[in-house]
Specification:
three-stranded antiparallel beta sheet; 8 strands; Rossmann fold; 659 residues; 2 domains
């Protein structure tokens, strides 16, 4: 290769300003997710920045003949490991003090995986980034650090080999970018969780930055050159990132095509160079540069601070508390940068220092995995009763909820491959088939009722099966995380939800049950309910029963009981109740059209009154609990609902429609 070695890489304050944009978006999303709905795309901005800077460092060293693998990894170690070690140790200590046994065990697993930089793949085996349980994982955010460190581990060797073999570096970058982007598009629908977390489906974002670094070093004339093009490029870049924040949310198929907004936006801002309009007027502001300088410790600190606060309160903290948590994160980040990161990076530049921190991080990983493999006892001797109570509800060992609390959910009527989910192979492809008893009419039964919806429809099975008259057949087509819908149901083998709903409608058309019960966890929408009701009426269903939301708790009910109401557990409480669900229920109930054959069942009214919502149905808070998590009914609560309102409503509905 006959490239001329460029001059030394220049520091760009505007890139620190872009780091500030990225970290503020992420922190803003975690603090106010309903306001900054797409703030999590700040991580994608980070990826582009990392690809640009790291590739620039490597290419500069290779072209100047000064590149050293040892020096490269030593610099990365001194930059990243000290702060990470401090955050991991602080999370360890805080977790020991405030977590329950299964939560602490999970923290140990995540600490070890985070220290080994493989947490992104571990998290992919547990569930999605936006799952409700993710809010109680204090080290969740280390998934992105895993992606970056995996990139740091592999990319220098790829570039070095291509350089030594005199291959076209730009072609290597373009091919890797295209392959990764296509891989992302192919898998985003069928394997959305894996696609979100994996290096192979995120690599293209880093390659965008790498391509910019290549152009910047070897062919800078391809970058915007005039004041006008730089201004247009920088403004367009900011607009794209801003559009991503407003248009993308937790329901988007992300990364997919959506990730082009923040990544191309970041690339345009970097390409605009330091004198681009936005770069000069916004990103180079002193306070923006300062936030960019502390962005790494800020990113590492903020999520444990938020997660532990949420765990402590057993709910989302108030706005005032969340602002205080942001302030605390800023203080911790500043102290870490001034007292740890900056001195080590600038004054202790020896490889021995890097080796020390690498050994320390490996020790943390080893100790975390060792402790994780051992029986964990977090509670003191005086708390044994509390620990015993909590362990009854804990989802440990894995799949306990599935085999214990959900054993009567009838997962044989579920098109979601839940076994694959628990085997760490989650997929959106539908199950090949469900049990024929879920949808085949029983000629010996006089009446039929079909349950349709998601897991909040599944939870009704237990109570109805025990309460319905003997001449009623209970049918069910209910798939996890899949609300009943009658639109966008094209024939597909890649979307289990669309497949399940299409199958449910086909079954209803063939069987025409007298009653269809429609239930879902959240996202109740009056327009959608009306469409479902109209479609079922057209198919000949005499009675359609729509269930409103069940009482939702801001944390798992057992956690609220042991953290905030122990030991005198009240029969009813307002502590930890999610009031937003009440607002949704009231709106639905007031606007629901009680047309012939359509009924709205107020589930909340069955469990809640002016004194609060039921925590238990008898004297035993363990055996008689109403929920084991945030809102799924236990078998006892399902039976209570069936006896109190569901079965009487079904019988009344059939009686009225037969007249």
């Amino acid at each position: 290769m006959n490239f001329q070695a460029p001059s030394s890489l220049k520091y760009r304050a505007d890139i620190d300003g872009l780091r500030a944009v990225a970290v503020l978006l992420v922190v803003g999303f975690h603090a106010f997710p309903s306001v900054i709905t797409g703030g999590f795309i700040g991580v994608d901005v980070f990826f582009v920045i990392s690809g640009f800077l790291i590739t620039g460092i490597i290419l500069h060293g290779l072209s100047a003949g000064t590149f050293s693998f040892i020096d490269f990894y030593a610099r990365r170690t001194r930059r990243i490991f000290p702060t990470l070690i401090v955050v991991l140790l602080a999370s360890w200590a805080t977790g020991w003090a405030v977590l329950q046994s299964d939560e602490y065990s999970r923290l140990l697993k995540h600490a070890g995986s985070g220290a080994a930089f493989v947490l992104n793949y571990v998290l992919a085996s547990e569930g999605g980034y936006f799952d409700r349980v993710a809010e109680s994982k204090p080290l969740l955010h280390l998934w992105s650090l895993g992606v970056e460190e995996q990139f740091y581990a592999l990319w220098p060797f790829v570039l070095w080999c291509a350089w030594r073999l005199r291959q076209k570096l730009w072609l290597v970058i373009v091919l890797l970018c295209l392959v990764s982007f296509i891989w992302n598009l192919v898998n985003i629908q069928t394997k959305p969780i894996d696609t979100f977390y994996a290096l192979q489906t995120r690599l293209w974002e880093l390659m965008l930055g790498a391509g910019l670094a290549y152009i910047n070093i070897f062919n800078p004339t391809l970058l915007p050159q005039t004041a006008t093009t730089k201004t247009v490029s920088s403004i367009l870049g900011l607009v794209l990132i801003g559009s991503g924040v407003m248009l993308i949310d937790s329901t988007s198929a992300f990364p997919g095509w959506w990730a082009l907004l923040p990544t191309v936006g970041a690339a345009l801002l970097i390409a605009s160079q330091s004198d681009g309009f936005i770069n000069r007027r916004l990103l180079s502001l002193r306070w923006m540069v300062w936030v960019g300088l502390i962005s790494f410790p800020m990113y590492l600190w903020h999520w444990p601070v938020f997660a532990f606060a949420r765990i402590y309160y057993s709910s989302t903290p108030s706005y005032v508390v969340r602002i205080a948590l942001i302030t605390l994160s800023l203080i911790l980040a500043t102290l870490t940068y001034v007292a740890i990161e900056k001195p080590i990076r600038l004054r202790f530049k020896t490889n021995k220092v890097a080796a020390f921190f690498a050994a320390a991080l490996m020790l943390i990983a080893a100790l975390s995995f060792y402790q994780y493999s051992q029986p964990v006892v977090v509670d003191a001797a005086t708390q044994n009763e509390k620990a015993k109570f909590y362990s009854y509800f804990a989802d440990a060992p894995p799949m306990r909820w599935l085999t214990f609390f959900e054993k009567e959910f009838r997962h044989d009527c579920n098109f979601y491959q839940i076994d694959e989910y628990y085997a760490a192979r989650p997929t959106n492809k539908p199950k090949a088939n469900i049990a024929t008893t879920c949808f085949t009419p029983d000629p010996l039964k006089r009446h039929r009722v079909l349950i349709w919806g998601d897991s909040h429809a599944q939870m009704l099975n237990s109570g109805l099966a025990k309460t319905l008259p003997s001449d009623w057949q209970l049918m069910q087509i209910a798939s996890s995380g899949c609300a009943a819908r009658v639109d966008h149901l094209e024939q597909t083998t890649s979307d289990y939800c669309a497949y399940s709903n299409r199958f449910a409608l086909d079954t209803i058309e063939k069987v025409v049950p007298e009653v269809v019960i429609v239930a879902q966890s959240n996202g109740h929408n009056l327009a959608s309910m009306n469409r479902v009701g109209a479609a079922l009426e057209k198919l000949g269903v005499k009675s359609v029963v729509f269930l409103g939301p069940s009482p939702h708790w801001q944390d798992d009910l057992p956690k609220i009981l042991v953290r905030r109401l122990w030991p005198s557990i009240p029969e009813r409480t307002w502590v930890g109740v999610n009031r937003e669900v009440f607002e949704t229920n009231t709106k639905l109930k007031n606007k629901f059209s009680t047309a012939q054959g359509k009924t709205y069942v107020d589930v909340i009214d069955s469990f809640c009154n002016s004194d609060g919502c039921l925590t238990r149905l008898g004297n035993d808070a363990q055996r008689d609990a109403t929920s084991w998590d945030y809102g799924h009914l236990t078998a006892a609560a399902s039976e209570y609902l069936a006896k109190q309102i569901l079965v009487p409503q079904l019988l009344k509905g059939v009686s009225s429609t037969s007249k």
